[in-house]
Amino acid sequence: MAVDKDKILQMFEQLTESSQQSAFDFMQYLAEKQNQLDWDDLAGLEPDAASLSQEEERQLNSEAGFVSWEDAMDELNLPTDIKS
């Protein structure tokens, strides 16, 4: 689909300064995201030959398991409701 770049610029210029910043941030996000591998791409990659660090080995063999966001916030005595 072809996009009229002049139309985009015209629309951008009609936005408030705050909205222009939001539009710019979103376009920057899209530009960065398109260069990142998605899960299907990652699954197709060959494993690397780098061995795990001692910390990675410790975490992999840990019995701690998964910690939810809420549990981690509670453990750190941080509010779990960002509205409060």
Automatic annotation (TrEMBL):
Domain of life, per lineage: Bacteria
Protein name: Uncharacterized protein
